Every structure is written in C-alpha cells, then in structure tokens.
Amino acid sequence: MHPLTPRPKRLLLLSLLPNAWVETVGRRGGQNLYLSFDDGPHPAHTGPLLELLAAHGVLATFFLVGEQVERHPEVARRIFDAGHTLGNHSYSHPVFDSLSLERQIEEIDRTDALLCAIDGRPVHPFRPPRGVLPPAMVMHFLRQRRRIAYWSYDSLDYSRRPASELIEVAKRHPPRAGDILLMHDDSAISMQVLEAMIPQWKRDGFGFEALPAESVR
Questions:
Q1: Which residue, among 9, 54, 26, 43, has the nearest Cα to 150 in the 3D structure?
Q2: pLDDT in tens, 127-150
Q3: Catalytic residue (choose from 38, 39, 154, 185)
Q4: What pLDDT is stored for residue 160 in this prediction?
Q5: Is 38 among the residues known to form the active site?
Q6: Cα–Cα separations (whole angstroms), residue 159 to 165, 175, 187
Q7: Does 71 score more than 70 pLDDT?
Q8: pLDDT at 33 over 80
Q9: Mind listing the pLDDT tens digit for each residue in 145-203?
Q10: Residue 64 is inside which H or E element, if any?
Q11: Segment holding 181, helix H or strand E
C-alpha cells in the first residue's frame, strides 16, 4: 500500500508547466497558503466551514458546481458576501474527458453565467472536475489566454479516511509558501482537518489569501 502523500507525481509534473497555463501555485513571494474548496455549495457543510474561516480571518477560493449553485443560491451568495473568491467547477461535475470539447465549453460557460449573477464577473477561475485535463480543452484555454486553476497540495479529504489520519499526514508533510491546497466543502472532513491545522499553520508563520478572481492573462 502506497503511503499517503499530498504531492503525488502528477502534481510534480504539472508544476513544470508555466503557472500562466495551469495555476499550481499562488502569488509569488510572501508566506501565504491558498485554501480552495471544490464541489459546493453544500447546504449542510459550507455554512459551518464559512464560520470557521471567518473565526480565523481566512479568505479562500470556492470552486462551485453550477447545479449546486442553482439548488442553493443563498449559500453561494453567502460565500461571496464573506469575501471569498468564486471559481467555476463545471455545471454538472461530469467525467470531463468523456465529453466533446463543445460540451465541455457549455459546462463552463453555463456555470460562469450563474456565478456572474452573484459576483458580476463574466469569467471565473476554472478547475476541471476530478482534475482531468483533456488536451483539446487545454488548447482551447491557451487560445483564450485563460489559465486553468489547479493545486499543488492535496489534502486527501475525499479519500474516506478519518480526519485524524489526514491531520497526521498534514503534519508529516507540511505545505510550503504559495501552495494551493485542494479541499472539499461537501463533507465535514475538511472542517475537522482545518480546525486542527489552521492554528498550526498560523503558528508556523503562514497567512492565507484567496486566489485572484482574474483568470485571463
């Protein structure tokens, strides 16, 4: 059984690409971490997570699924009103490489329109479902001079392992300044991990920022 690691080989390879193409690290310089949350907004889990972040003065980026925004617009609005950046995580969270490029673009554009109704921005940072990067989609983004939002540190909060185990992984493999941390707000696991780790990361000298809302180069 392979040991748990927040930096699998795939992330190491992606980090070799220009950050303007695939964003794997946050703003250069400083001592900041960039928390990011996928798959929300969730009616039960996003609200308590927002309260935790507010209690620590932490801003983050939420990559929202369009269907979930339609179901829970008040939660999506609450994320924005709290000062966090809204990101695009497709409309229905499909298996992206099973879709044609046209269907992929439809998923992205439909969600951008839903998010624009909340924050007024026509284009948002886009993170592909499951981190899948179909070559045609990557080339489309390059032609549009639009970067793909990725991550450099995987919290593994989707792995169905207990929070206590993930906390130990985070302590053994601490993040580095500029890391974009992949997390999810569709379960209680990320909140349990962050209750322990935000104070620890602050003691380690880290601050927290949201990713820039501008996604076009």
A1: 26
A2: 999 999 999 999 999 999 999 999
A3: 38
A4: 87
A5: yes
A6: 11, 19, 11
A7: yes
A8: yes
A9: 999 999 999 999 999 899 999 999 999 999 999 999 999 999 999 999 999 999 999 99
A10: strand 61-64
A11: strand 180-184
**The dihedral of CA 96, 130, 57, 146: what is its sign?**
negative
DSSP letter string, 67-122: HHHHH-HHHHHHHHHTTPEEEE--SS---GGGS-HHHHHHHHHHHHHHHHHHH--S
What is the C-alpha separation between 192 and 157, in angstroms, rounded?
Answer: 10
Q: Greatest CA separation found in the chain?
A: 47
How does strand 153-154 pair with strand 22-23?
unpaired
- Tell me which residue has tokens 């946050």: 26
Range 149-181 burial, b when 16+ CB lie within 10 A, else e = bbbbbbbbbbeeeebeebbebbeeeebebbbbb
Per-residue tokens: 13: 């390879």
pLDDT of 207: 97
Say if CB 124 and CB 115 are below 8 A apart.
yes
Q: What are phi and psi of 68, to 5 degrees?
A: -70, -35
Using the Cα atoms of residue 24, residue 28, residue 34 and residue 40 in order, give the sign of their dihedral.
negative
User: Catalytic: which of 45, 72, 84, 184?
Assistant: 184
